[in-house]
Amino acid sequence: MKAKAVVFTDRNTVSFQEVDCPDPAADQVLVRVTHSWISNGTEGSYLRGERVDGDTPWRPGDPHPFPIVAGYQKVGIVEWVGAQVDDLKVGDRVFASIGKIDGMFEPRGGHVSPSVCPRAAVLKLPEGVDPLAFSGLVLTQVGYNAGIRPRLKPGDGAIVVGDGLVGQWTAQMLASRGAKVVLVGRHADRLAYFKQGVTLLEAGGKWVEEVARLFPEGAQVAVDTVGSIELMDRLQGLLRRFAHLVSAGFYGPDDQLQLQPPRYKELCIDLVSGATPERLAETMELVANGTLDTLSLITHRFPVDKAAEAWKLIETKSEPVMGVILDWGVE
After folding, report:
1. Residue 157: which CATH number?
2. pLDDT above 80: residue 205
3. Which residues are listed as membrane-spanning (predicted)?
């Protein structure tokens, strides 16, 4: 069958074009996409040729991952259900992650419609909430995962470095659990979105001294969402004994962390990645009840056929940008 998709045809080259998809099978669902949410970080590293798969960095000698259908998250309307699917029906509003695609570097992608989806990749949306709130659910779930994994008690200190989407949702999740959260970032406009705790604008190394002043006995949680081994090393000095160091970034080929230093304080290291149906469902509930806020983080919407313009904005940062939605013209 034929579909439309956002395709990275080469490094820094974005096309909206027709693609081939397999016909849906009896255990699959066909979804007509209404909106898809760009993952600025993950998709951007694919577009620049820095990844060859999920969390696998490109290294010299590897093939470049082109052409590839970008993305992994969207919302839409069920258009067809296979005979083996008995818990969804035509017309249901759903979230979907990946869809099946032929003729690409990977046989799957996100920004494609109609999307041939495995049943496990589809979640029915709750009623009474704007579907757009769930269109970035996989990425929101990364923030949920980073914020739910560490052990903490109300009042414990938590440091989140990175003021992008994952950093925002991680900070929201930790704050909802009662942590005293410090969000560290480089962008005053982004930091202004986080109103549940302390925010710090990074300037040289001064934020380290300020965090140490705020948590004189050490924080219980420190989360790196930007992907820096140097930062992971620095954060260890701000933690107390038996604390949690959380990695929620992409480190590329420079990903070697020394394990002896964390042993001095017996730190736990949580490595968060990917998504599970259970975590997606839990994240969806938290979005629905307002614990996790997504809609206020959407700064730009583009018609899907203008996806190249969306990516030009994301890559050049010609104006402040956070959540970017592609509108497929379907209601």
Report:
1. 3.40.50.720
2. no
3. none
